[in-house]
UniProtKB/TrEMBL annotation:
InterPro entries: DEFL. Belongs to the DEFL family. It comes from the Eukaryota. It comes from Cardamine amara subsp. amara. Keywords: Antimicrobial, Disulfide bond, Fungicide, Plant defense, Signal. The lineage of its organism: Eukaryota, Viridiplantae, Streptophyta, Embryophyta, Tracheophyta. This is Defensin-like protein. It holds the Pfam family AtDEF-like. Residues 1-23 form the signal peptide. GO terms for biological process: defense response to fungus; killing of cells of another organism.
Amino acid sequence: MASSKFHFAILLIVISLIVNVQSIRVMDDSSDCEFKGSCQTKADCYERCGVGKPPFKIALCEPYGLSGRVCCCV
């Protein structure tokens, strides 16, 4: 009985380590965004990002720290 509890505890530790490594990979600080000023809605970013014109094809209005929301051009 103690052996199965030990194996279960080891399995939980291994799973938690795998999940932790994956979450660190997701929280990578590198960004594909080019920030182009403040916004309130996604539509505010269309002209700034040049939606439909290369090289930017996507405009997002994203929260950015304490400075409110900014246009993220991808």
